[in-house]
Specification:
Radius of gyration: 19 Å
Number of domains: 1
Number of helices: 7
Shape: globular
Distance between the termini: 68 Å
Strand content: 15-25%
Length: 190
């Protein structure tokens, strides 16, 4: 009778955390919020120096910077609405960056349905190729998005998608249907 060697469980190696392109932070802080004074100093303390931008940043720098934007620019709002406004401001500012103009120019021509189908591509442009999106159609003018994203608040994503669809000539309504540590589910209607 042969004795089988002990089998060790295969360790699952976690991919490294994503890095966020400098153009995303530029879009939010330089072009969107037009950061100045104390906000610029606080951002530098977090690791984002708007005067000497880097090519990309650890996602943790992005998270802390987004939380700072929410607090400083939208402190009078509750968390959900504050982060939604950060997302809207991000898309407005990102649309003014060199990378963002490419997507923004096409949005009015392709309309909301095709824009929604391109969400994974747009997120990859913003440095988030790690996000997995499962999309299902809800009627003619709606999509349900299951998004695996451990790093962004769902409200930030909802606000950004709202603004993106507005740029595609729609009047969107986005509801956060579910939240978990690994992601969230959004109902997108226009």
């Amino acid at each position: 009778m042969a004795i089988s060697p002990l089998r060790r469980p295969v360790e699952q190696v976690q991919p490294p955390p994503p890095r966020i392109p400098g153009s995303v932070l530029e879009g939010l802080f330089v072009r969107g919020l037009k950061a100045s004074g104390r906000l610029v100093e606080e951002l530098a303390a977090l690791g984002y120096d708007i005067k000497r931008p880097e090519m990309d940043y650890p996602v943790q720098v992005w998270q802390r910077a987004a939380a700072l934007a929410r607090q400083e620019a939208f402190g009078e709002l509750n968390d959900e609405e504050g982060y939604r406004q950060v997302g809207r401001t991000l898309v407005n500012g990102f649309a003014e960056t060199l990378v963002g103009r490419v997507a923004a120019v096409a949005l009015p021509m392709i309309g909301p349905a095709r824009a929604a189908e391109r969400i994974p591509r747009y997120l990859a442009m913003m440095g988030r190729a790690d996000i997995e999106i499962t999309m299902s159609q809800v009627g003619e003018r709606g999509r349900r998005l299951h998004i695996t994203d451990r790093y962004n608040r769902p409200d930030l994503m909802a606000g950004g998608l709202e603004r993106m669809l507005e740029l595609a000539n729609a009047q969107p309504r986005i509801t956060v249907e579910e939240r978990s540590a690994d992601g969230y589910r959004l109902l997108v209607r226009w």
